[in-house]
Write a structure and sequence with these properties.
Elements lengths: L12 H17 L3 E6 L1 H11 L5 E6 L8 E7 L11 E7 L9 H10 L7 E7 L2 E7 L3 H7 L2 E2 L2 E2 L1 E5 L11 E8 L4 H6 L6 H9 L3 E3 L2 E2 L12 E4 L3 E11 L5 E8 L1
Antiparallel strand pairs: 1-3, 2-3, 4-6, 4-9, 5-6, 7-8, 10-15, 11-12, 11-13, 13-14, 14-15
Helix pairs in contact: 1-2
Length: 258
């Protein structure tokens, strides 16, 4: 099983060990194990841990069909999970819309300000002035009691059914670029209206994430499948590394979120 580590970065070893422990727990106890909300990279690691193992499987659910963050359920192969097994709740943020404005970052900041672990809540959804949060069911009563402001704006939470979730399907477009190396600053600097110098400044200031984790090293080596996000600019994914040119530059295909 140690061979699994070679497919991932050293800093991801801790999460892989945790996933292996969860899998073993289900194999030993014949009972499901529910995780917190996981990003797509963490789910990819879990799938690698499960592999083709027949007696333990994993299912994911995040409250709606396009959810980015989802809870995982490790379970025996004979168990057929229902949506209710994932303990996911949809809460709408009610606030005085006529007199104040809130935003996705404000809501995220206020939730984190309560000392909550990021795995306790999933996607923050929005449609014009409406905002909703998908949360772990065990957190609902705590949020009703303590989540009463977003910044200085008073709010209250209203429970909704999952079918009332507001969300839009993300649109990605592909772009092929040629870069001198797979360094983070080089790849971000390849975007139109971006220079390598500006990319380096953004990385050093903590504005760049790779696979949902902040990276402040400009020389960080990117790999196929990595999701990159730049605060204030958007997200892109390295879809494929298409080989080298005669001048030994890399041709890569990026997926860029519209």
């Amino acid at each position: 099983m140690n061979d699994i580590y070679q497919h991932f970065r050293p800093e991801e070893k801790e999460f892989i060990d945790k996933a292996m422990k969860w899998k073993q727990q289900v194999a030993d106890m014949y009972a499901p194990k529910l995780t917190g909300f996981l990003n797509p990279r963490e789910r990819q690691m879990i799938r690698s841990v499960i592999g083709s193992m027949e007696d333990v499987r994993v299912s994911f659910f995040g409250g709606h069909s396009s959810a980015e963050r989802k809870r995982g359920l490790f379970h025996p192969s004979y168990f057929e999970p229902e949506e209710t097994d994932f303990g996911v709740e949809l809460l709408e943020v009610d606030y005085p819309q006529k007199f104040s404005m809130i935003s996705h970052p404000h809501i995220l900041g206020s939730l984190m300000g309560l000392g909550l672990n990021r795995e306790k809540f999933g996607d923050i959804l929005s449609e014009q002035d409406r905002f909703q949060v998908i949360v772990a069911k065990e957190l609902t009563s705590y949020l009703h009691a303590h989540f009463d402001h977003v910044g200085k704006v008073p709010v209250k939470l209203i429970e909704k059914t999952l079918s009332e979730a507001v969300y839009s399907i993300e649109e990605w477009h592909e772009q092929t670029v040629t870069v001198s190396s797979m360094r983070l600053d080089v790849i971000i600097g390849s975007l139109s209206s971006m220079s390598r110098q500006k990319a380096q400044q953004l990385i050093k200031s903590g504005a760049v994430k790779v696979n949902w984790k902040a990276v402040d090293q400009t020389s960080f080596e990117c790999a196929q499948g990595d999701m990159l996000s730049v605060r204030g600019i958007g997200r892109m994914k390295i879809l494929s590394i298409d080989g080298q040119t005669k001048k030994e530059k890399w041709r890569i295909t990026l997926g860029i979120l519209k």
